[in-house]
Structures are given as structure tokens and as C-alpha cells.
């Protein structure tokens, strides 16, 4: 018998599926959010939580909410192996899901590395579009050791992970309103909202659209890897109820 081959799913298709399944309501502070899952060694948990806390408190993440998954427990389709611990953090695509639910035709376009100089974003230096890969772009770039998140925190200059989405310029007021609600709910990470029909961080956007750049939810993982920890990242892993997560201050 010939086994049926697995179909290839590009990241853009997976993002669309997760966006439609996002139910998070920032006003009610309830519903499902998309999460990134980090798999680490159990003995590294305390040290890595310190790294994550520093990144989160420095604004280099989407949300301060985490979930710890112990060995033998499952989250989505992932079961945590003996000797490992999972850390779930909020994925930036959650923002796109909330915008979509709010009536904004948002189009996640690419993930990349943004150069920061003296605390200000300058430009994307490396990008991977969602339609061109079956692996999350930020996972790809993180594996290439092209970030310098730790250096950026020390000096104000370095390279961090971020992603870009496009939206119709007529939706600008709706975008501002929804992003404000998300900020009140602790979901942030907006790096830049571009002007209509203008390049954003040196990346062009479509006519009659504007670009929105969000800090990558995987920056804490990148920072931990830079410091020598083994971190296996599964970006956009699954969705979980926000009520299952706790504030980073409850852990560190």
C-alpha cells in the first residue's frame, strides 16, 4: 500500500487558519490566543524565565502572559517529554486575529530582522515572506543567529525580530481603536504604524494600504539562545484560553 503523502502547508495558510480561530476579546479579557511554544531543559527553567522576564519587561515581546507546561503534560498536539519544560507565550499573530474579528482585512506579509539604532527602529535587514515558506520566518531567522537582542538591551542598538502586516488605509481609525483596546489588555509590541502608500522600515506596501510592524513574540527565545541556552521553538503552535496563562511577575 502506498501511503498518502502529507500535503505541504505554507505559513500564510496556517496564519489564516489561526487568525480565524482566534477568539480573544481584549475588552472582556477572555478568549483564545495564539501561542509560541518554547521547549527547554527542566534544569534551565529558572534561568530562562529570568531572561524572558527581562525581555518582556523591556517591551521585547507581545504580552507579559506565560504558561508553564511540565513534562508529561500536553498543549495542543505537543506532549512535553521527560526532562523538558514548555513555556507558552503569546504570538504576535494574535493581534492580527483580533484585528480581523474587528472587521479589518489584515494581511500578514513577512517576518524579519529589524535593525535598532539608539533605541529607534531603522529598517528590516532580513525578511522572509509568509507565502514563500512552510516554516515560520522568525524561526528560520532565529536559527541563523542573526539577532542581537541582548546587545540591543545593553546598548540600545542591535537586531531584533519583528513582522509586518498590511491593512487598507481606510481602516486606520479601526486599527487605532483596536490596538488601543489590546494595549489596555496587556497585548502590545507595536513597533511602527506606517503612513498610507509609504514604505515602512524600508519595506514597500501595496497601494492604498499601510504597514504595521509588530515586535516578534519570539524575541525572548532569541535572547535566551544568544546567552547559550538550548531553546527549541515552535512558533504559532496552537491556541489556548488566555485564562490559562499567568503574568510573568507571578513566575519571576
UniProtKB/TrEMBL annotation:
<feature type="domain" description="NrpR regulatory">
    <location>
        <begin position="8"/>
        <end position="247"/>
    </location>
</feature>
<dbReference type="Pfam" id="PF01995">
    <property type="entry name" value="NRD1_2"/>
</dbReference>
<dbReference type="InterPro" id="IPR002846">
    <property type="entry name" value="NRD"/>
</dbReference>
<dbReference type="InterPro" id="IPR036984">
    <property type="entry name" value="NrpR_dom_sf"/>
</dbReference>
<dbReference type="InterPro" id="IPR038982">
    <property type="entry name" value="NrpR"/>
</dbReference>
<protein>
    <submittedName>
        <fullName>NrpR transcriptional repressor</fullName>
    </submittedName>
</protein>
Amino acid at each position: 500500500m502506498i501511503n498518502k503523502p502529507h500535503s505541504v502547508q505554507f505559513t500564510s495558510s496556517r496564519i489564516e487558519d489561526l487568525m480565524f480561530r482566534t477568539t480573544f476579546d481584549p475588552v472582556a479579557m477572555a478568549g483564545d490566543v495564539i501561542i509560541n511554544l518554547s521547549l527547554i531543559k527542566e534544569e534551565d527553567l529558572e534561568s530562562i524565565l529570568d531572561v524572558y522576564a527581562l525581555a518582556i519587561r523591556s517591551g521585547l515581546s507581545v504580552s507579559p502572559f506565560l504558561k508553564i507546561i511540565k513534562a508529561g503534560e500536553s498543549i495542543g498536539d505537543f506532549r512535553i517529554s521527560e526532562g523538558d519544560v514548555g513555556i507558552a507565550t503569546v504570538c504576535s499573530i494574535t493581534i492580527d486575529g483580533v484585528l480581523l474579528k474587528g472587521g479589518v482585512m489584515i494581511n500578514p506579509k513577512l517576518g524579519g530582522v529589524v535593525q535598532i539604532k539608539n533605541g529607534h527602529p531603522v529598517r528590516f535587514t532580513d525578511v522572509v515572506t509568509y507565502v514563500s515558506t512552510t516554516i515560520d520566518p522568525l524561526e528560520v531567522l532565529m536559527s541563523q543567529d542573526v539577532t542581537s537582542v541582548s546587545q540591543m538591551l545593553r546598548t540600545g542598538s542591535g537586531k531584533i525580530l519583528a513582522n509586518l502586516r498590511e491593512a487598507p488605509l481606510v481602516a486606520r481609525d479601526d486599527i487605532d481603536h483596536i490596538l488601543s483596546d489590546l494595549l489596555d489588555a496587556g497585548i502590545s509590541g507595536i513597533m511602527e504604524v506606517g503612513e498610507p502608500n509609504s514604505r515602512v522600515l524600508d519595506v514597500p506596501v501595496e497601494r492604498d494600504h499601510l504597514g504595521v510592524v509588530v515586535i516578534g513574540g519570539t524575541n525572548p527565545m532569541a535572547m535566551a539562545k544568544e546567552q547559550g541556552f538550548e531553546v527549541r521553538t515552535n512558533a504559532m503552535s496552537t491556541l489556548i484560553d488566555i485564562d490559562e496563562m499567568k503574568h510573568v511577575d507571578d513566575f519571576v
